[in-house]
# Entry
Amino acid sequence: MKRPTSNIQRSTSNEAAKCAAILATLAASLMILGIVRAAAPAFVNGDPVRVTKSEMLDFQGKNFAGAAKGQEFTLLKHDAARKVVFVSFLKDDNTMIAVTLPDEAVEPAAPRASLDLVRGAEEFRDQRYDEAKRLITRAAQDKQYAALGGALYARMNGAIVAAAQARANPASKQAAATTLQTLRDTAEQLAKAGLPSLALPLDEGADHLGAQVAGLTVSASKVDRADLTKRAAISQRAYLLARQAFALKKLVTASKHIKEGLDAEPAHAELKTMQPLVQKDLDEADSLCKTAKKMQRQPNGAVHALSAIDDGLKLCTDHTDLRELRKTLAAAFEERTSPEVTPDFRPLAKVSTPTQVLEEGRKLYTNRCTECHDLEMLDGRTLTGWAGMVSSMGRRAGLSEAQKSRIMDYIAAAKTVVEAGGAR
Ligand code: HEC
# Structure
């Protein structure tokens, strides 16, 4: 059918094309000048987003936890007016909450095919067939999932089409029953392959689809629903907790959840990918721990032991032995992370900053900057590096400009003292 505006469109199409060309050129040159940024890729609810700079997660308007650069979350909603995104966060007590991040601190992340398959199967279960097809089609674009995604799509879509035909024409009921039978078989295969999160919603979806056709007898399920329900719940929870722990370098915790998840869902692709990455850093932390213990026993080995412990804890923040060692060497650590303002301090630091100011800075530094993590060795960063950290972290810690500058006064002086070998 001809739309009434088509004539107008045709007559102005030349003008419009010219106009578009000019605008495009203008946009390109502005972009080169850095005046206009390229349009940010759109946020899609349910898709993963990645944190682009370390940030705070807020819950009901209050700081709730730190989010590390690179950490991924599932997007619940983008509130463009308030410039925040809502993402889901699983608490240790197993409650899922919606937390917010500034939208300029996140970007859309590449979807994971294996997770898209599960989401697609869940949409199928909930009878949102278009969304199910979209997700499974997207998963099948990943080479590794082309075969599984393609097969799932064909069987799911076959059943959806057959059910619609059977609703219109009772003579097609048998054909519909056959496609549902195929879904049952697929669910059974997936369960046997160690994928309860995929098998369960598919099997449940067959029930819901069958119920749409009056008088259709759906063959019995071939899977142990209760067992799959339990496994899927464990693995999905374990995956979220492992992902959160891994992002914050709590590798011991991550490793525990990965094991839990793989016990419940042995073929969980994301957990299987994460496992060797976590293990590699854990092994490295173990090895640094061994080095530290050896160094500690040697005369004057403390400095090397400290470095090894510090490096190890940077890799793995919840390493029990490293944390114990750090406690044992707490005094030695203090000398390199936050030396006291002793009488020797100012001459060594070669600063004229009043002692009182330095002490104030130290107090702020040791109290406020340890709320979320341990202090770092002062000689591990340049002064510019520290200034950048205090500026970005100070915002997260809710510090005023004056407080940040006190902290920097102390850090600048203390760094010189540490590099001179300490004020004792
Ligand atoms: C509200 C929690 C919180 C507070 C308070 C906090 N930090 Fe952090 N900090 C984090 C988190 C989370 C990370 C993990 C890494 C990241 O997000 O980039 C981190 C990382 C760091 C790092 C390592 C960064 C890297 O790239 O290796 C330094 C250094 C640091 N913080 C310094 C500070 C200083 C200085 C203060 C005080 C002004 C401070 N932090 C206060 C949460 C906090």
